[in-house]
Amino acid sequence: MKKAEISRLKKLLFYEEKARLQGFQQIAGVDEVGRGPLAGPVVAACCILPANYLLENLNDSKQASVIERERLYTALSTDPKIQYGVGVVEVVEIDRINILQASLFAMQKAVSSLSQPPDYLLVDGNRLPKTDIPGEAVIGGDGKSLSIAAASIIAKVTRDRMLERLDEEYPLYGFKKHKGYATPEHLRAISLYGPCAIHRTTFEPIKSFCNYSDTPSTRP
Q: What global pTM score does this model have?
């Protein structure tokens, strides 16, 4: 690994090292993906990296290509020294409690799924999920903390794979390509076929379509 990459990765351990100086050992990064799409679940991941863990090119999932994310996911998910958990909140619950609460609930589920609970959380964003575990919310944390970056990779790849499977069930919408986001292609499909069972009915334009459609029972 080149010196510049080692230096970059070590800078991303700032929050983890700060927590260790306070006496915490099991420090978990937490992140979610899927707040913005019109369809599909919101997925969160929680990841505990070993102290001073460095994985080449580990970064915010949005900064990595599909191939690179898959490589990083494999490295993280198959390393026995790494603990990780995933939390999924489906569309029905998103519509019931709203996307913010669903995102926090997914994070809570991800933390709870760990076999060994962390003693400190580093969470991407400005809010902590409801747990008894102390932690810090870090705005833009997936680009500032290695643990959060690892969680972002796991959450992103997990959700992308879920949408690829859902594409087989609902082939009219192109979920494999756009993963539920409001692309022109996706919006055209909604206008042609109406929303399907995994569309979020509290999100526009799905909400308006459901309110004004004469035939809501004909969803594909």
A: 0.93
Show the 3-state SS of 24-82: CCCEEEEEEECCCCCECCEEEEEEECCCCCCCCCCCCHHHCCHHHHHHHHHHHHHCCCC
Pairing of strands 120-124, 83-89: unpaired
Q: Where are the alpha helices (DSSP H) in 59-199?
A: 66-78, 91-97, 99-112, 146-169, 175-178, 184-193
pLDDT digits (tens, 9 = 90+) for 105-163: 999 999 999 999 999 999 999 999 999 999 999 999 999 999 999 999 999 999 999 99
Residue 134, SS3 per DSSP: coil
Give the pairing type, strands 135-138 and 83-89.
unpaired
Residue 210 belongs to domain spanning = 169-218
How many structural domains are present in the chain?
2
Phi/psi of residue 46, nearest 5 degrees: -130, 130
Do 178 and 118 lie in one domain? The reply is no
Contact 64, 184 (CB under 8 A): no
73 with 99: CB under 8 angstroms?
no
Length of the chain: 220
Same domain, 23 and 111: yes
Do 184 and 138 lie in one domain? The reply is no
Residue 117, judged by CB atoms within 10 A of its CB (0-12, 13-18, 19+), counts as: middle
